[in-house]
Amino acid sequence: MDVMLINAPVTVRNEHARLSPPLGLAYIASALMAAEYRVGAIDFNVSGLNLKRVDSMLSLDHPKIVGISTTTETYGNALRIACRVKESAPDTVVVLGGAHPTILPEAVLADESVDFVAVGPGEQAMVALAEYVIHDRGELAAITGLGYTEDGELRFNPRAELPHPDDLPMPARELFPLEFYRDAWNVLTASGSCPYRCPFCSASALWKGGRQMRSPGSIVAEIEHLQEVHGVSRVFFTDDIFTLNRRWVTELTEAFSAMERRIEWGCATRVDLVDAELIAAMAKAGCTGIQFGVESGSQQILDSVKNIEKQQVIEAVKASAAAGIDAVCSFMAPFPEDTLETLDETRLFMHEVDEAGGRIFLSYTCPYPGTMFHDKAEELGIRILSDSWEEYDAKHVVIETRHLTREQIRTTVEAMAADLGMTRSV
């Protein structure tokens, strides 16, 4: 084995963590395989973390490189895996990539169990690093997006340019246990960031503002391949803002309607980027589910963090319901200016959304690294309560605000969930 790719898991297993295979690792695997490297993969979100399995992998497969993908909440487990690799096979090269190392590369590379970090897109960096480690070709300084230690100093090469999604090879999904995922067939429709820069989202820090749309023809070709080879009847598009470009959406839905076999699909977007006409066209082309980021039911709060109107939410949900589309609306609490009164507005508004036909998802606000809520916490009146990254999962109360204590946040959010008949708030 040349390269083993590992998806670091959440500490507390949950359905959302193992919803879909790690598409980023699947793309990196396909790039390595195209360069004729032998690649394996493990998603510990499926099985739960088992360090004995790491030992077995090292003794049976003898990978020369272990690449670990990690988010903020999985970072602790990523380091546990890296440490175990170094204990059991000290000569194995350990690379960490993903959201957390991209946003906090210095802190990640400073850990003694980490040899390299991949900052930003990982396909080019991992292929070039494999060339360097396995074949002794090239120079570290020439590998874009790579962080490494040289002469006791941390060094970071310029980031790689965001690849156009049309140029990426088909992701190597077959390396993952697809039968264990609820939405096993997730499909990339764009690479890069969202232009809205919401203060609670790290996308702009992660991708530095770049965004490139995949061509409708390329998407249809992949779906037809999945239909023919795997019998796929439904896919989910991994794009936080699917309807950003209306002309592109129209071209894509027309292409879906022209397909020989119908495909059902789901996506995520903003309520101010849809209307009844577009939603109806999406439904006609096979859309069965849309996730809307609503965040709050107080217009005062929405004006400060999302810039959408409550009426737009209701209109989007009603249009979705009328078209037979399952509309899931995500809320979070608290925001810096939330009070008990604005949280009660959110509670009442969630009832309106529910009555309009939307489903509610409620979580705790989390100040992820790279967000305004993290980087300007003191200025915003946010007190960060935990330095344990494992609690940065939107399921723990990790902040207080100038208006709300931890206990007020917990009891209020739990009461909001109970009022809606939700068995759990997050």
Please specify the SSE layout and strand pairing:
Elements: E1 3-7, H1 23-34, E2 39-43, H2 44-47, H3 51-61, E3 65-69, H4 75-88, E4 93-97, H5 99-103, H6 105-109, E5 116-118, H7 123-135, E6 146-150, E7 153-156, E8 186-187, E9 190-192, H8 203-207, E10 211-213, H9 216-230, E11 234-237, H10 246-257, E12 264-269, H11 276-284, E13 287-295, H12 299-305, H13 310-322, E14 326-333, H14 340-356, E15 358-364, H15 372-375, H16 377-380, E16 383-384, E17 399-400, H17 406-419
Parallel strand pairs: 1-2, 1-3, 3-4, 4-5, 8-11, 11-12, 12-13, 13-14, 14-15
Antiparallel strand pairs: 5-6, 6-7, 9-10, 16-17
Helix pairs in contact: 1-7, 3-4, 9-10, 10-11, 11-13, 13-14, 14-17
